[in-house]
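My current task is to audit a protein record that another person submitted. I have pasted the whole thing underneath without changing anything:
***
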Amino acid sequence: MSLAPASLLQLLWLASPALPVGGFSYSEGLEAAIDAGSAHDEASTQAWLLDQLQLGLGRSELPLLAQATAAWATHDAARIGALNAWTLATRETSELRRQTEQMGRSMHDWLRQRSPADPRIATLGQLAPAPSWPVAFALAAAQSGAEPRDALLAFGFGWAENMVQAALKAVPLGQSAGQRILAALAAALPAAVEAALAMSDDERQAFAPMLAILSSQHESQYSRLFRS
């Protein structure tokens, strides 16, 4: 079934780097991988980001987003609280924890200004100590009326575009190289989304030791452009 034009536009808006949540200021460990030499040219950067999609985003944020979107559709506050707590508990470094909290708070503020009458906005704002980014995005996706699959594709492409922009600045890479990497991530995204949609709570996981180590090192990295 084709996506309604209004829903499509909402998802394009949510995936846009112009969304006022501060995503552009984070590299999610990529800058530390560049400093360590693990991502140093187009090929190595593409390989790193594909691994991050498959081993990180695809097993953690994407399945959680699918479950949170369904929970927001019925305003299941208890389920939302449990999913939010899991997200915060599985951020393995302080900067990754701060990122998801800051972006979650910013999304809450944006949604509160756009649709203050929606009672789910208050539920989002009451999540302690803060709403996480994927849980907050899930509410925006639920408001759009889009199917979970489309919401996950929008979330994943927004992540991919932000990571490629970070790579252009930090590796550095040219625009053409960036577009080739983005094409590779976009090609891998549908399969990652389908796998995420099929995951249960017990299958969802956040286990990327090297990313956690690099993120910890990034916190005291001598020179850096990004907050994570």
Notes: The mean pLDDT is 95. The radius of gyration is 17 Å. The chain has eleven helices and no strands.
